[in-house]
Amino acid sequence: MIKTEGCSLAPAGVTYPGDDSADEEPSELDKARDQLNRLMGTSRLTGSALQQLSLDKWGRSYDMRLCKRGKKVYFQVMWKFLEQQSFPLTEDEYLQQLDAVAEYLTMWGVAGMVQAGISAASSRGPGFTGGGGACAISIPLDVDMTGARSGEWDGCI
Q: Where is this region: Disordered (predicted)?
């Protein structure tokens, strides 16, 4: 898990082996975030839930990323998957990556959009094209990345 001066990139309520903050009570921010999610009718999406969506749809734990292209943000289901021998992440790293993606989706309020996009996606799933290229499933997200948010990040996470 990546930490900086009292901050953590782990979503609220998620702990990892060796995390010394596992015994702490949820912070006031975590409590307020959970209460706001309940009031707004939005549910917190987790990395495990994203993995389960992938397993239910395609039978594999595909890698999932967020990608910013110009002013648009996309949720992408990549062609590599956890069960593949050449997959570059350990299972813990994979789940941490999905937790980070899920935290952004929850924060932006687009978790339902991603769940609907995965449900509507082809049952073939992502993979390789006949010509040897890789093909990801891209779900456009309704996220405003203009103005003050435009410099938050570029590329993919």
A: 1-28
